[in-house]
Fold this sequence. Notes:
34% of the residues lie in helices and 16% in strands. Helix 2 crosses helix 3.
Amino acid sequence: MHSSWRCTGVSGENYDARFAALARAGHEIHGEADFVQSLGVESVLDAGCGTGRVAIELARRGLSVAGIDRDADMIQTARQKAPALDWFEQNIASYTIPDSADPAQPRRLGAIVVAG
């Protein structure tokens, strides 16, 4: 499969619009972040991060976060929303997240979240 493959079949912008509509309607959209934060970890990989909804919320709460997704449009949207976070357009099954301080070493993380 090539990098334009999308499991959701929608653009990053449209994907975000669905969650924005849920939030406006009063639905809690950060249950995954609540759960991960309750684990007491300091660092998280958001696997299949999409547009970064969970990763961005965890970073807002002070956790060190990286996001990975193989969908180029989703990662592009995530990077636009939170350019300071680490986003990787890769297949998680065959990619090692590099350490921020020493990219030759793999990053150690306290948890991996796969939302949805």
